[in-house]
Amino acid sequence: MAYMSMRSPLFPFAIVIALALAPCSYGLNQPTRQSSSLASTSTTLNYHGGPLLSTPGSINIYLVWYGTFPPQEMAPIHDFFASLGSSGGQQKPAVATWWSTILAYKDKAGKPVSGRVRVAAFHEDKTCSLGKNIKRPQIANYVKKMMDTQVFPFDSNGVYLFLTAKDVVVERFCSGSCGFHENMVVSPRGRVVYAHVGDPGTQCPGLCAWPYAIPAYGPPGNPLVSPNGVGIDGMIMNIATILAGAATNPFKTGYFQGNALAPLEAVTACPGIFGPGAYPGYPGELIVDKLTKASYNAYGANGKKFLLPAIWDLKGLNCKALA
Questions:
Q1: How far is Cα 269 from Cα 44, in angstroms, rounded to an integer?
Q2: Which of 98, 121, 144, 219 has minimal Cβ neighbours within 10 Å of its Cβ?
Q3: Which residues form the signal peptide (predicted)?
């Protein structure tokens, strides 16, 4: 399932529509203070009775690094996954604290979404075997081939995540979309979840890496300083959004609002909210590193700092943000 986010200053109410991924651009960071949007939303995510990624143990991530990713770009993404479900030794607020909000999402048997996420395997395709202009069905076929050739195992509680480098063009990416998650039947074994997130650093930073980049059209303002690089931090925000949606609505029968083909999900129900006091064009109160001036709201493994989007809290019935 893909996500489309209207997080642009031209859409001040930031209604997330259908098939695209947030956190896309929601406007510019502005210093003036207004009432918080955390309590003003009337969103309700209904449960539609289907399975979640709730198998005991962990949600297993199978990464495809498609294109050239230098080690310094891969490391923050690996550290983000390493931070999920394991808060030992981390400063607060931790990435695991962010994921803990997802644990309130339970299936019809009362089993919560898996509390741990880990990278189970990864594959590097530096030669871009599909070329550098890819259609979405090609991603599904690629993932299926990874299973057919036993590069990856079949895993019904996994997410097969196709990550593309900054010079790879994917259908609909940067055209209102920052990525997507979908599912497919891998006969006769069953159904799996696959997803795509691209590096928006050069293609569409204002759309898919806000508030670390300025949208092409909107009010004047300055972007925030990113802790890991604009493109990579944009990818991590979008991976977080995709992961939350895939875990709570993997097969279009889980938690969402609206049409199953155009849903609001756990994170896309909270567009543009990253910290307390957020409102359209202002991401909320964040932590600012005194030395680097980078803004973030979560601490992760190996000293990494991340900016993670708010999640719809089923207990508080509001958008729950860190920091």
A1: 9
A2: 219
A3: 1-27
Q: What are the tens digits of pLDDT across the range 259-310? A: 888 889 999 999 999 999 999 889 999 999 999 999 999 999 999 999 999 9
Of 21, 36, 7, the C-alpha closest to 281 is 7
Q: Where are the domains of the chain?
A: 46-320
Model pTM score:
0.88
Handedness of CA 96, 179, 263, 274 (dihedral sign): positive
Cα-flanking dihedrals φ and ψ of residue 199, to 5°?
-80, 115
Q: Where are the alpha helices (DSSP H) in 168-226?
A: 205-208
Per 3-state DSSP, the chain is made up of helix, strand and coil in percentages (nearest 5) of 20, 25, 55
Produce one character per residue of 218-245: b if its CB has 16 or more CB atoms within 10 Å, e if not: beebebbebbbbbbbbbbbbbbbbbbbb
How far apart, in Å, do the first and last CA atoms of the chain sit?
29
Residue type, 141: N
Strand partners, 117: 59
